[in-house]
Design brief:
With about 150 residues, this protein is of the alpha/beta class. It is built from 2 helices and 9 strands, in the order E-E-E-H-E-E-E-E-H-E-E. A hairpin with a 5-residue loop joins strand 5 and strand 6. Helix 1 packs across helix 2.
Length: about 150
């Protein structure tokens, strides 16, 4: 039995004549919450205006890292004033028909309240690794997750 369950409903219907020219557009519902318009990535005949699975994959890793890091910072009495991550996922081909998300690079810019000190910077860097080790999304995938932080003390 699981400790937590997360439910998502994905809906798609054929529009048009079918064949390889079918629409990749679909709806992703989160019961009792919001819904997202999804599609394939444009390079896979998808709709660029909609979110694709690759973007959502990168977003889930980025969000989990951030939330885990914020928790650890506040637990250690480090006040984070802002966090902005410009994450990048790399989909690579390894053999015929074998594409996979090989690497996700997180590039957070983290703004802290207070003057910079050697101890504060060391703790901020240590907590980045602890957050990575504790991020259950990153631990659940075989993708390499790199983190290239930029720490700003204000």
């Amino acid at each position: 039995m699981s400790d937590h369950r997360f439910e998502v409903q994905t809906l798609w219907e054929l529009t048009g004549s079918g064949g390889n020219d079918f629409s990749r557009d679909h709806l992703i519902r989160f019961p009792g919450k919001t819904e997202l318009r999804g599609s394939a990535a444009p390079s896979f005949s998808g709709n660029a205006a909609n979110l694709n699975p690759e973007e959502l994959f990168v977003a889930s890793i980025s969000s989990c890292q951030m939330l885990t890091y914020l928790y650890l910072c506040f637990k250690n009495r480090m006040t984070v004033k802002g966090y902005e991550d410009n994450a990048v996922g790399e989909l690579v081909r390894e053999g015929p028909g074998h594409l996979w998300m090989k690497r996700v690079t997180l590039k957070p810019v983290i703004r802290f309240q207070g003057a910079e000190s050697q101890q504060a910077r060391a703790l901020a860097i240590r907590l980045i690794q602890e957050a990575h080790d504790g991020c259950f999304i990153a631990k659940s995938v075989k993708t390499t997750v790199d983190i290239e932080p930029n720490l700003l003390f204000l």
